[in-house]
Amino acid sequence: MMRRFALSLLAIVITATAQAEEMKLSVKPLLCITDSRNAVCEMSFLVVWESGESGYYCLFSDYHKAPLRCWTEEREGRLNDDRAVRETFSFWMTGTDTAARLAEVRVEVLRMDSDDRRRNRRTRHVWDIN
Amino acid sequence: MLRQPIQLALLLILILAVPGLADENAENANESRWQLGAALGYGIRSNPLVQSDDIPIVVDLDIAWFGEHFFFDNGDLGLTFADNSAFTASVITRINSDRVFFGNTDTRFVVFDSTGAPLAVPTLFKPPDRDYAIELGVEMLTGGDWGAMQLTAFHDISGTHKGYELYADYSFGWRQQRLYVGPSFGLSYKSAELNNYYWGVTPEEAGTVAFPYEAGAGFNWHARLMIGYQLDKRWAVSLVAEYERLNDEASASPIVATNRVLGWFAGASYRFGR
Hints:
The structure holds two protein chains of two kinds. By secondary structure, chain A is an alpha+beta fold. Chain A contains one helix and six strands. In chain A, strand 3 and strand 4 form a beta hairpin. The termini of chain A are far apart. Helix content of chain B is 11%, strand content 50%. In chain B, the strands form two sheets. A twelve-stranded antiparallel barrel of chain B has the order 1-2-3-4-5-8-9-10-12-13-14-15. In chain B, strands 6-7 form a two-stranded antiparallel sheet. Chain B contains four helices and 15 strands. Chain B has helices at 3-17, 192-199, 203-206, 248-251; strands spanning 34-45, 55-66, 70-73, 76-83, 88-95, 108-112, 118-125, 134-144, 147-156, 164-171, 174-176, 179-190, 218-230, 235-245, 260-272. Chain B has one domain (3-25, 34-272): Porin, CATH 2.40.160.40. Chain B is mainly beta. The chains are: A alpha+beta, B mainly beta. The A-B interface holds A 30-33, 35, 37-38, 41, 108, 110, 112, 114, 116-130 and B 28, 31, 35, 37, 39, 41, 43, 45, 57, 60, 62, 64, 66, 71, 73-76, 78, 80, 83, 87-88, 90, 97, 139, 141-143, 145, 148, 150, 169, 171, 173, 175, 177-178, 180, 182, 184, 226, 228, 230, 232-233, 236, 238, 240, 242, 263-265, 267, 269, 271, 274.
């Protein structure tokens, strides 16, 4: 009984690893820039994924507990996700086990100015933009 | 005449600021106190002196640390004594920037004197050297949706030029995601003592080539345009052009060849710790 359970567990791990190795996830754009005048980025993200084998896959983001979308018996897919972004967040793909992330991409939010005015003082740096 | 009031005002500000220094350990959790960067590219800053070379810019470092009250910003040492929604004010010690031109001058044989008449014998001439001055002053920063303003008043405390400078700069930036365009312009008033120390010529320095010259006070003005493009969190490319018009008193000096300073730089910059 224990041996069968261990083999099943091993099979799940191997399958998940294989899926993780084969899953490709890309997101564009990867950088959102904010400043004091534009504290939010209104972005349209193009999310594209491709797997080595057909299966059940779901796309998640930090913004929702529920998947943005799931695909059944597919090996590739894409989604346009329009949203207002304030903080760095991630998109990730899962298989049937939604706790295991097969691929993950982080979208960075970069605040370009500072509340500290001294950081924006004019110095002798000709190239400095922030 | 203005020296004593300025020094008294600075002393008063320092005294008022001291009680606030106990809070120096307060941390802003979201922002590192360090600001470290480096730029690699090429640019020049022209030199208005006669017999001088332009100042090349290839590598530039940005090293700054901002505490609650104290800060170090690329050679400037500051003590912030007021910071509120309207403005930030600091007492700052810095090194005067006019000296930079005097480190790139050449010694050459000259065949004409200061009036343009030919010399009997070619004479060696080098523009006179000048020392760095350490200055103490007050800086006020303010800004909002309308842009940013920087106002400063600095006085020599090293006994070098014994003068003062008043400065104002206005900047406004437009950002479209990764692209940033930032023009700025302003002016500075240089006192007669400051102007004369750097741009004047004493009878001893004049010799047969230059004529003795005493510079009075005057206004410089400047304009700058910066275009930057953020490649990722740490890398950016930027193009900067800067124009500074020297005051007439400095421009009329026999050791000054042109009344303008032009600068530009194009390169890539890297910001550490983001």
